[in-house]
Amino acid sequence: MALSANKILVVDDDLFQRELMGAQLASLGWRDVLFAESGLAALDLCAHYGDQIAALISDVMMPDMDGLVLMRHL
To answer: In degrees rounded to 5, what are phi and psi of residue 63?
Structure first.
């Protein structure tokens, strides 16, 4: 049985930005938000949660893997 996509993944290397985005998403009713501090961490979460992720919000400029490279990997 496939699970419905009910999670949002927020990828940002800045803790304050991740927390701010989480608070904004919570105010919009999203209760299941995943957070990653890097592109590599985001790829790990995508591998684990896969089809449960409805959307991904990513910083474009990050030190290890920027948001564009992350999108290319996905």
So the answer is: -65, -50
